[in-house]
Every structure is written in structure tokens, then in C-alpha cells.
Amino acid sequence: MEAATRLYYRYFPEKLLGEVLTKRWSDNLVPAFAVLLVVGFFLARDPGFFSLASLTETSRQLAEFSIIVMAMGIVLLAGGLDLSVGSVFALANITALICMNLLGWPVWATIAATLAVGALCGAVNGFLIGYLRIRAFLTTLVTLIIIRSIVDIILLRYAVAISAVFPDSDFWFFLGEGNVLGMPVSFLVAVAIVLTWHVVLTRARFGWHLSAVGGSRRSAFNAGLNVKRTVFLTYVWSGVLASASGLFFAARLGSAGSDTGVGLELAALTAAVLGGNSLGGGRGSVAKSVLGAIVVLILTDSMVRIGISGGISSAILGGILLLVVAIDVRWLKNRHKILNKVYVSPSYFKLPEMPETDAGSGTPYALNDRLREVSLIGKGQIEGPEVVIFDRHDNLYCPNRHGDIVRFLAPDYDEWEIFAHIGGHPLGMAFDRHDNLNVCVGGMGLYRIAPDRRVEKLTDETNRTFLSVIDDSRLKLADDLDIAPDGRIFFSEATIRYDMHDWAYDALESRGNGRLICYDPRDRSTRTVLRNLQFPNGVCMVGDGESFFFAETWGCRINRYWFAGAKKGTCETVVPNLPGYPDNINRASDGNFWVALVGMRSPALDLALRKPGLRKRMATRIARDEWLFPNINTGCVLKFAPDGEVLESLWDLGGVNHPMVTSMREHKGYLYLGGLYNDRIGRLKLKDADPDWTSQEFYWGAENGSR
Amino acid sequence: MGLADFVATAAGRLMGGRGNSSITVPVMDGPLKPNDMLETAAAVLEEPGIDNLVMGANGLLASAGDRLLRLRAAGADAPQTPASFNAEIMSLAAHPDAAVAIGLDGGGIRLLAADGTEQSLVGGDKINCPTAMIFADANTLLVCNGSRTTGARDWPRDLLELGRSGSVLRVEVASGRVETIRRDLAYPAGLCLTPDGSLIVSEAWRHRLVRLPADGGAPVSVLDDLPAYPGRIVSAGNGGYWLAAFAVRSQLQEFVLREHGYRKMMMAEVEPDYWIAPALASGLSFKEPLQAGGVIRLGIHKPWAPTRSYGLLIQLNDDFAPVASAHSRAGGSRHGVTSVLPVDGNVLVTARGAGVLMRMDSRAFDDVSQSGEKGSVQ
């Protein structure tokens, strides 16, 4: 049973579902599925529909219709509604016919005049709605009627005259009936328009403004966008596109019927919303509009083919509109809930039996009170000193949760100042050869602070993983770093699936969501060196110039990775089964290494790690404060030899002085303790340590002249 | 479980946790609004394991582990130990004639007379888990037998096993004859008699107080949906009752109770001290399960944090509606309130998890209940 669970969670890509849902394009999946369904259904029912002649004719209709739907989609995206597209379509049709047939204008002039008429209609709408702030629904309903009346008046007077004349223009004919490479001209033009608008909406400033205005008018205004003009322009473009569609219609049929474009607004609206454009604005794309257009067009055409009368097919269309609007509203409202339910995706993880930690057990982990004697630095003055580090003048540096680097001044560390402000939550720190302070900042990336306090971003992105669904190129939670002798900076990113403050979710998943990244200052490149690690945390050079230790927090183990030399690229587990969750690793003066255990394992949680389904239900059904959690109220400091043997442990039972230990640094005979959720820094006198040893001098040598 | 129940449970579970699958826990509000009264109450005596308080004819008695203690209500003096037993004392009841009945873990009930002579009243085969007892009259002892399968120490196991094997029994003192009043109760852990003679039992695992009809009919709930596991209940003398709640419910707990696979694996593989289960005291080992809200931040253990152990004493009115309460919250220590006894305008309270006997002025509760009422009106 447990084996089945293990295999399922190992090979079934459950987390993909959640990741796909975070994507904006996931909205398209339902309409795309609907397209397949509709096409499949009519293919099975009526194979004649897909003959070449039929497809050519359909693609002409599709070109006209999808341009209209796109016009509707653009208006919807900015939070509006354009009911007048059908009337504008009819007006454009009659305008083009008058220009060609009665006035005898050349084609280019006809096109210009038609588009201008469309733009004018759109501008009226846009002015009323954008600048005078009249309701879009009422305004476009009124213009729908008015423009329709104008069309009727024109028809009364010129319909006969128009049908009497046949324009003598090859280009006009080409526009309506011609083919290029076997494909209708109008279809190709529509494809070009679609592609252009896709680029505009997704890549261009105007498109982003549209989404912003539609998403939240007030925020867009506050961000300095010209909301009124943006809204105005959407209606103008809607009018232009509708008239372009009318133009093709005129060229194709050349008829001035009174029912041209009647009910088109309903079909276009149905198609736009069916495709996934939100009625509320802010969510929509060209692809959605086109998908919707295909479904609605095939539906209406097929209803005609199988003999459903016009009235009933309109009713069916209306019913579909009602249905998709309801779905749209519910989907918008519940999408984030669904996402919350499916995004967290725990995996199966079985830890070995926890090592004995009882006081009398005789293991190196046996409980003791050695940390109780710590004296405290900055108690109540500092919030969240995750790590501590010293410069060559014994000043103490630590980060806080406000994004500052705080400097406590030697020798007594009573006075402190803000050395630099970065932002985010600075986590790991290391001095390089030139006494620059390199900092991993949770939520931001890798930064460098020069001795003159100048802050410089080194990197905030790495290469994106091939075929990854979520964009993992940004650094979400850069955690700890160390610097190779050649200057390369190796740092850990704890998780790529969650942000800094949601790290608890990653604990719940206990999957390898983290990675190790290398920043090379020589060519300023960043690349990922190792993936799928369980919350990689502390990083510390072994000292042989070709490998480093790193801790996998949720994996309860310490690994060694070779970045150079004969074993380059290999990774070995050095300390496999810790009784707690390892955090930062640092050098000790006796050639061994310190590692902080940020929390201790609890048997109930270890058991829950073997029950991914349980953790998933826990995440969805109970409040986050009630979750079963790694016990980070008790921690300890361990010392281990380079070969992985754990030598000793330092505990503070009950966490009186130092409830949480995320890091420690040995400096001149003292051990300094940091903690992510602490309001203090601990300082402990080490009995047998070298009183002159400093990590900086040991690793980089005495003060050098290259500064 | 009947088919209808099964379908209802399955549907409730599928629909995201409704009905039986709901894991909501009532919030502590109104009369149960948290305060620090237990945490700040005067400690009369510190005695590890101090548990059941009763007022005997010759003074105050208490149990602590396997020992019976004789105390002075004022405290101060070291307690005398008139008797000790070979099993843990689970409950006491004072006989009107100065004798005292002693319920032992797995060992039945003994009667200790005022002159020190001791006799067995009921054998351990009939009553193995006497969680609470009272004398209805000189010849009738009413006993809650919490569970047929567990004893004093491992009551969390009975909760996790969804125990429904408790019973309320009537013991005829003269003959030692045992008669069952009601069986299949979910850990009855306290009982008292109302002035009109009806029997009230606290059914811990169902978080409620029930009235057991004299004719043996189905229990009638008088107070339900408690956010805690109710334990011993005593009459306040001047109207109303005191209810000791030995632990509080939590969402995680309710969740685990419905996760049968995990529940069973945990009982099989994890030491009982480290189960996801309520406890009388917590924070003793880092191996205990921690919940997210319990993480110490900037040196502070939040008092609202979910916790395995809690101190809660509830004052009820004549209709068993809560009117006031005293708390020791997460981060505090006076957890696991198991017994309460009104004495001369004071109430004596034992927090067994902390091993403390406390004295509180009952008028302090009037202030709390009034401020609570004001709060609810405004």
C-alpha cells in the first residue's frame, strides 16, 4: 500500500495541474476543448462540412466573424462592452458598396472611407463612454439602434441602385473571392490582424494598458495611466475592426440586404465570452476570441445545415451565452480557491528512523544545556537576524526582516547602525576576497555590498529549466552562499515554487523544489548547477578548492558537491540522517564544521511525510496556523568532521535564551548564534577554540593589498 | 454505521468537509472568552499529579498518583497521606458517613472508612476506568466508567480509537451490586445530580453534557458543541455548576480523528507521548507535534496558538449554559484542569498537568461574566 503511494507520488505529475492553473493561458484550455468537441461532433455527423469547398467558404466567414469577435474581445478586456459592432458592420458594408458601386471610387479610397466610418462610430461610443463616463451597455445599445436606423434609411434610398451596378474592379473581386496559396485573401488578412493584435495585447504598451484598465480601473489610474483615453481607443479600434469585417463582407457578397449584421453582436459576445474573455474585464486574449469565434461559427453553420430554424438557433446561442456568462462569473470567483486546493502538492518522503537524542543515550546528539550560557547581543533591538558575520575589524553584521544589514560595532557590540538597506529579507552572507559583503536576499536575489556601503545587484535570474511550466528563471528564495577561491559564488535557492513567506508550504510538500546556483563574476553569468533538492539551505566551502557542503533542510541531510577536480559534478550525502532540520553551515577553528539545526523532527510529522494525501487534505481543510509543522522552537548546533562524522552537539533545552538557531559563526573563540524569528543574537564562549581564529582570515588570508 | 450514515459521510467528505466530516471547532467567545485567570490564580499547593478534589466529612481530600491526600483548604501545611494504593487513583467520592470511595486504575472501587479500614466495593473486572464518582445517597454510588479498553494513563488512545465504550453505573454500597444505567457513551468523565434528582454526565469525546433519563432512555443533550473536552462537573451549591475541561479541541485533532489510516499508523508506530492528541501538559519534549501557530516569534509564544494542552474552567448556570470561564492559554502552564470544588465562597481548582492546586475567589467570575455580557450586548 505504502509502496503504491510512493510510486504514485514519484511518477504522477500531480503538481503540474496546479502549475498549469497559475498560468493565464490555462483559461484557454476549456474553450480549446470545446473547439475539439464541436469539430469532432460535426465531423462525425456531417463529413461534408469538412470538404475543401466548404472549408474555404467557412474560412471566409470565420475571417469576418473572428475580426468582429476580436473587436468585442478588445473592448471586454478593457472592461467595456460594445453592442454596436453588428450595426457598424452593416454600416461599413453599405458604405463600401456605395463607394464602389455608386460613387465609383477606387478600392483604396473605399477601404479608407469604410474604416473611417467605423472609426467615427467607435469614436462616438468611445467619447460617450470614455470621457463622459456613460454606461457602456446603454450607450452601445443606443448607438446600435441609431446606426441601424441610418443603415435602414440609406438602404431605403440606395438599395436598388446598389444592386443594379456591378463594380468593375479586379482587386475588389480579389478581396472578396480571391485565393492566395489556396487560402482566401480575407482569411489571410484576418490571420495577420490576429497576429498583430496578439503581439499588441501581450507585448506592447497599449495592450498592457488595456489589461490594467480592465483589471482595475482605479489602480490603473493611480499608476498614472490615461484611463479615459485608453477606454476611448478601445471603442475606436472596435469600430475600425468591425468596419474591416464589413468591408470583407461587402467584397464577398456585394449585397445590401436589410438583415446584414442583425444579431451579430449577440453572436460576437457569445463567442468572446465562450472563448474565455471575462465580462468583468482584465482577462482576455486574441487566442480566446478566435477560439470562441470558431466554436460559435461552426455551431451556427451546423445548425443551419441540420435544419434548425433561425429562431431556434438564436435561442440556442442565447442559452449558450447565458451559460458561459454564469461559468465565467463562477470561475473568476472560485479560480483562486481551486488553485489553492490544487497548487500545494505534497510528495511521499520517508525518513530513516530518527537518531536517539535522549540525555543519557551516549550519541553525539544527546541533549545538554551548553547553549544556556549564551549572553545576548541586541536583545529586543533586532528582528530576524538569520545569520551573523564579521569583518576584519571584528564588527558584527546581521540582516533583519526589514531588509537592512545591521552592523554591531566592536568590541562590545552595544552600539549598532544600519550598514546598508537592500530590501527583501537578507538571509545568507559571505565576505569575498576584497571584503565585499555578498548577500542572498529572499525575494530578490544575490546582492553585493562594497565596503563603502554601495549596494549592487549581482543576479536575480538563472537559466530557465527546459519544459518547466512555471517560470523558474527568477530567484524566489535565495538562501545561503559561499565563495570559491576563484571568486565564483555558489548559492542555494530553497524553493522555486513558493515565495519567502510561504516557505511553510514547501515544508508541507517536502519535495525537491530547490536548487543550487552558481554566479560567475568573471562573465557575470548565472546558471543552475543542481536541481530538485529538498530546501537546500546552508552552503560552505570544504576548503579543498573543488567542493562545498550544503544542507537539505527538509531532507535532514548534509551533502557535498564537487564543482571542480576529478569528481566534478558529483554530489554525495555526507551526513544522512540528522535528528533535525539543518540550516547554515560554517567553518570551525579546529578544521571541522558547524551546522545549525533550525528545528527538530517530531515522530508525528515524520509519519505524515509518508502520507502525502493526508498533508494535502490538511492544507486544504484546516487553517494554516493549525497545520502540523516542523518543530522550529527547539534547535541546536552540531559540529561535524569533513568526513561526515558528527562530533558534538550544543543544546538549549526549552529554548529559554535562544529559541531558534538558524546559523552560527565562530569568531575569536566565541560562537555567535543567529535565528530567523529571534529578536537577539547569542554569544557563547567556546572552551577549546583558538582565540585568534577568524573565518575571514582563515579562508582569504591576512589583509591583502589588492583592495 | 448504517448505509445512510455512510453515504452522508462520504458525500460530506467529497463536498470539502460537511456534516460529519466537518472539522470546525467552535471558537471560544462570549462566556468562554479567553483570559488569564487560571494563570494568575493563587497557588495553594504544588503536588505533582494532583487530581480529584472532594470535601469529606473530616476535611478536604485529594488524589495524586497512587496516594490519597488530606489537605487544609487554606493550604500552607504539607498534606497528610492517610493512604496509598497499588494503582493510580482515578477518582474519589465522599460518603456522607465520613468514608471515601476510591476508584483505581483497572482495580475497581475501594471504600476507606473514617477509622482507616479499607474494603473492596467493586472488583476491577467490573469497573476498570472510574473517571468520576458521586454518592447519590448513603447506599448508592454513581460511577462513570470512561472506557472498557483503556485506563488512567492512555485516555488519548481511547479518543484516537474513537472510543464509545464508556458507561455510567449504579453501585449498591451495601451489596456491591453493579447495575448499568447507560452504556456506549463516548468517555463519560464527570457526573453530578441536579436538585430535582436527574443525572448529568459529561461525555468528553462528544464534547457535551447529557441528562440521563431515569427510565434508561436515550441521553438528552443539555450543553453541546463545546470547544473543549468536558471532565468533572460539580454543583456550585448556591445554584449553577462548575465544569472542569481537561483539554481543548483543535482543528488538527478533529482532522486526524477523521484520517483513519494515519490515525492507526500513528498509534502503531509513534510513542503515545508524541501523538497528535490532547494532553494534560505539553511542551515537555521537542518530539511533540507542533502546529504552525505555535512557532515562537521574536521570543513570544502566542497565547492564541493551537496547543495540545490548555487550562479551562467553566462556570455554568442552573440550565447548564456557560456564564463565565477561567483560562490558562498556550504558553501558560496551568493546563489540564481536572477537578474543581467550591469551598466557602472560593473555588479550589487542580491543574493536573502542572501539578498545582489553586484557589480562586468565585466573585471574580461574576466580574468576568458581567464584562462578557456587556461585551456581547455592545
Description:
The complex is a heterodimer of chains A (707) and B (378). Chain A folds into two domains: 60-341, no CATH class; 370-464 and 471-700, Neuraminidase (6 Propeller), CATH 2.120.10. In chain A, 42% of the residues lie in helices and 20% in strands. The two termini of chain A are 62 Å apart. Chain A is α+β, with helices and mostly antiparallel strands and 707 residues long. In chain A, α13 (264-275) packs across α14 (286-305) and α13 (264-275) packs parallel to α15. The longest helix of chain A is centred in the middle third of the chain and has 34 residues, at 310-343. Chain A has a four-stranded antiparallel β-sheet with strand order 3-27-26-25, with no helix packed on it. In chain A, strands 4-5-6-7 form a four-stranded antiparallel β-sheet, with no helix packed on it. In chain A, 48% of the residues are buried. With 378 residues, chain B is mainly beta. Chain B has one domain (29-283, 306-377): Neuraminidase (6 Propeller), CATH 2.120.10.30. Chain B has helices at residues 3-14, 37-40, 155-160, 251-258, 260-269, 362-377, and strands at 42-46, 50-56, 59-64, 67-71, 80-84, 89-94, 100-104, 108-112, 118-122, 130-137, 140-145, 166-172, 178-185, 188-193, 199-203, 208-212, 220-223, 228-235, 241-248, 290-291, 311-316, 322-328, 337-343, 346-351, 356-361. Chain B has a four-stranded antiparallel β-sheet with strand order 1-25-24-23. A four-stranded antiparallel β-sheet of chain B has the order 2-3-4-5, with no helix packed on it. In chain B, strands 6-7-8-9 form a four-stranded antiparallel β-sheet, with no helix packed on it. In chain B, β24 (346-351) and β25 form a beta hairpin. Chain B starts with a helix and ends with a helix. The chains are: A alpha+beta (707), B mainly beta (378). Chain A binds chain B through residues 383-384, 504, 599-605, 607-608, 611, 614, 617-618, 620-634, 654-655, 659-660, 677-680, and chain B through 16-17, 23, 250-252, 255, 259, 261-262, 265-266, 269-271, 274-276, 283, 286-299, 301, 305-306.
